[in-house]
Amino acid sequence: MLRLSPQDLDRIRAHAERDYPRECCGILLGRAAAELRVASEAVPMRNANAAAPANRFAFDPREHLEVQRRGRERGLEVIGFYHSHPDHPARPSVTDLENASWPGLSYLIVAVAQGRAAAVNSFELAEDRSHFIQEDIQAGAAGAA
Amino acid sequence: MAVTIHIPTPLRAYTDHREAVEVEGRSVDEVLAQLTAAHPQLRPHLFTPEGRLRSFVNIYLNDEDIRYTGREQTPVRPSDSLTIVPAVAGGR
Question: What are the residues whose beta carbons fall under 8 Å from the beta carbon of A50, sequence distance 6 or more?
Fold first, then answer.
């Protein structure tokens, strides 16, 4: 389960709308304990996929390393990632599955319909990497974790 | 002195919740072999069944991506640190 403050959820939705019709992406920093991931910050990332930003995204690896490092200095971990699906449902695509890394991370997807943020869902990779499993998103306090 | 490997949050489930693991070795290959020997459950998350590093696994030796320094054959020295960071990508 992912706990995320309404403020951070709004930031993610605003990021998705701002970058429409391109896909946006970002990192969820916070703390993880057993089955619960508590986000305390949504960090927007640059979509480094310049070739197909309307239907693909990629992090810049060095920017990712930097965000991870700065989080660690404040006792925060990378607990998941978010990205948008412009004019497409908020569920993982084949491409998302092919590119997924590890179980134990939240993969949050926000659908954007005609420029307006719509459904938001979060998923976790199955232990055998064969599929994603939808997880609950619980509203948490701002700056929690 | 050993090489310190920083373990990403989701993989700490396989390292007894340790954030960093110290191992001996002279190359990235050797320290990763030591790491996965000590924590065998990590192996499928870092390597394919054929034994190749998974394509989404980026490894930094101190600040350098090992793709540009000799990949797994990159030599390591005591007091170096390795950081494992997943490549993150996808799309609708």
Answer: none
